[in-house]
Amino acid sequence: MALPHRLGQESILNAYRKSIGQRRHELTTPALILDLNFLRQNIETMAAWTRRHSKVRPHAKAHKCVEIARLQVAAGAVGITAATVWEALAMACAGLDNILIANELMGPEKLKRLAESARETKVLVAVDSSAAGEALARAAVAAGATIGVLVDIDVGLHRGGVRTCGEASALAAALSRLPGIALRGVMGYEGHVVMEPDRALRARKAAEAMERLMGCLEGLEHAGFEIEIVSAGSTNTYDMTGAHPRVTELQAGSYVLMDATYAPLTPAFKPALSMLATVVSRNERTAILDCGTKVMAMDLGPPAPVEPCAKIRAVHEEHTLLDMEDHERLRVGEPVEMIVGYCSGTANLNDVYHVVEDGRVVDVWPILARGPGRSGVV
Amino acid sequence: MALPHRLGQESILNAYRKSIGQRRHELTTPALILDLNFLRQNIETMAAWTRRHSKVRPHAKAHKCVEIARLQVAAGAVGITAATVWEALAMACAGLDNILIANELMGPEKLKRLAESARETKVLVAVDSSAAGEALARAAVAAGATIGVLVDIDVGLHRGGVRTCGEASALAAALSRLPGIALRGVMGYEGHVVMEPDRALRARKAAEAMERLMGCLEGLEHAGFEIEIVSAGSTNTYDMTGAHPRVTELQAGSYVLMDATYAPLTPAFKPALSMLATVVSRNERTAILDCGTKVMAMDLGPPAPVEPCAKIRAVHEEHTLLDMEDHERLRVGEPVEMIVGYCSGTANLNDVYHVVEDGRVVDVWPILARGPGRSGVV
After folding, report:
1. Are the C-beta atoms of B124 and B150 separated by less than 8 Å?
2. Which residue of B has its CA nearest to A322?
3. Do A52 and A177 reside in the same domain of the chain?
4. Do A220 and A332 belong together in one domain?
5. Does residue B41 sit in the same domain as residue B27?
6. Quick one: which of B53, B62, B107, B104 has its CA closest to B81?
7. Cβ contact (<8 Å) for A281 and B129?
8. Both A43 and A175 in a single domain?
9. ipTM of the complex
10. Omega prior to B264 cis, within 30 of 0
């Protein structure tokens, strides 16, 4: 079946663009709203901090949006971090340069596409096995490109990364013998630390993780490897990890949008992302809203209603159930706004950001490389 | 910024279509795989059952796919159920007729779009308040259309629906006085029952829910309302609720794709949906796969690895951590398949189904009306 032409993504974007000029609460719901002032504040807060400490290479997984990445780079970011080849390609297609994929990669098409983009864009990839390094090298050679690599070191998350400094040195040696790739540094993401609510404890755990990373770094330098990049850090540890003298750059992402889960841990950044919904049903106790897990990710926590004294009872696929103290508030048809619970997963579920300034939509920004990744990239 | 033309959704679909002819395990990962034989079996199992009992109006929320809906209608489904206006429009645009939106609706654009489509397509909507009925009537009159309505009765889920039979009768009376809408029946979705693992207890709870629905139905008929449609049921209660002599149609959805969560409760249907991933990192204990919650919804439960003796330790945003008994299995670069944990949410996260028969991709079917709903609809 041939799809009708109106299924084009440009048409989708044009449909959303009709909301430009509308008031925040007039939008067709559910609508993901990005407060431009808070976004700018968050970018400036991070920029001010990085002028005095390590640099930031903001993680695009948190927003998947070229327009946001450009603002971050304009404010001094050294480049962009990506979780997938498709996020990296989306950024590279839009002219952003110096992109780190902070995950291990395998698969012929993905490596080929990455290697081809590396002919025009500076690309870095995390590697934790010689098998992955060899596959990357083959793709780089076939494309006539050079791909930079960071040795990924497990500093406690126990996901990717080599487990010991011995392994790190052996891998670095193997990688530096391969054609088409260039060893540029190390990476150690302390993801196991970032949700620790006690700030002092979080700082101690982050310091321990960095000690592991630095141990391996010293070993590599002792063995004669030149280490230019030391990448680590997250939004909730930016001012801990990023203050370490040997960390050259942070891969924090969430700070730019923030959310109801991260904001209490790192109040320096302001939640800029909210979901607008409409009350579609009401009984004495509960207002039923027309948004649920198909537009709001709950990986780390639920959204937070802006409405005072309203409490989330449940979030279903297409509904949020909001228990109300005041029986007269939130009648059928009224708009309701909630701070997004988890920005990265929620961005992945939505087509666009409705960019709002002074209460009105001033622009609509597409969200790219969603789900399996081809959306907006091909 | 104008987006480059390659961002078109048709281009996305064409990119995926390049996989047609590929072997199941050669696909670029993560890839959502639909086993055509199991899909056909599930459709036939439901069709055989509904030939002897109530009819089925399959819920498109479970698949968001025109091609699947067409197969269901060809096998005897009376129409299609949808969760949102956008799902309904996606189905209507593809020529599917007789569509029930089994949720309350509000919002001027959505009601306008629905009313306009009701000029060409038979449309039914659940209503539980006179405010929603009046808004629907205004939109129908403005579009010169008639929209059918079902009085939504809360049979225990406590989400939408009127709470008492008195309210149901009062609402039916109010609705039948409104222009542009036609009272066609009642709906009572027993969503609070469907995850009860004990089949006998589930059957008893479903029967109790139907008793509530029938009580209100009798009240309405006693008051002189003509009730043509009585809609209820889900995949896990299809042979309970659907055996009730007064239930005219089921709104079951998941049965057609099934998943790791529903299959143990309702083994008559076979899991047809799986996620293909690649091992991107490996240590002694764990294989790290390149798929996570950005392509697999975890609302009801995790995916189930096909690989024997492999156990899900965690599902992160872009990774699944698979603990392995056998240290030699699943090396870096190998493909891994998992039965999807929850089909409806997972479909919502993916661009297409890779339709597989006899081990090869035979077609690629787009997934429409994802997230906020405009994708593939506009």
Report:
1. yes
2. B159
3. yes
4. no
5. no
6. B62
7. yes
8. yes
9. 0.96
10. no
